[in-house]
Please model this.
Amino acid sequence: MSKNLENKPKKFKIITEGIINPEGPVLGPDGNIYLVSADESNIYMIDKQNKVSSIGKTNGRPNGLAFNSNGELFVADAGHKAILKMKNGKFDVFVDEYDGSRLDGPNDLCFLPNGNLLFTDPVRKPLPDPSISPIYSAEQGSGKVKVFANDLAYPNGIELSNDKKNIFVSESRANRLVSFLIDEEGNLLDQKLIRRFRDPGHPDGLAIDSNGDILQTLPGIRSICYLDQKGKMKNLYHIPDWSPSNIAFGGGNLDEVFVCGGSKNVIYSFIHEVPGNKIL
Model:
């Protein structure tokens, strides 16, 4: 895409610069935004005045964050090949294996209404290997792990729908966004394709607004795609010199979208026409 195709979202601005390869933003129960730097092994907080501070280091490669309904912070850490739980500034292993084998390197995670945790665990192999990998489910409390869905080409971003009936997953090496229908216990009922993106889209992180529509990052083409629930494109935000990797809703009205600029080491934000979902 060329500069004359630039399409900035509303009230686009830079929040902060200098966090190395920021990833995994999430809205905390306190209204602050939390994110990671895998390269620094650091967990950061951006407060309501956009002041940035470090809240801890995992000494691994943190990729994604999620809060449960009790306000406890969980970390997908590829370096430790584990899901970590933060308590009193320290990080303990919540799960690190399935069926006696170590995880490959958790990437992103989200909680279900029943308290169970879903997380992506992509095998990291050089292209053109599709890195076929599973999505896992971990029971709250016991941490017992089972396969939620199998045979995905590098499952990446994962998010619960606003009606809490579907799980959306970015399938990076298949250039697809897929959804999984779940029952009240979080069991998989059905799977369907929402949208296939043109190469080299490389869908990564996503966020869902209160209408159920989807913001999907496409760092391969330096864009964020705004889709309805059926996958129809409503808009495509593109800026030639940004590299959007992961996003999350925040702000006082939940309509501010925080964007991790990936390789640009920048956090951006813009205002979305519809607010995001409240946390569990």
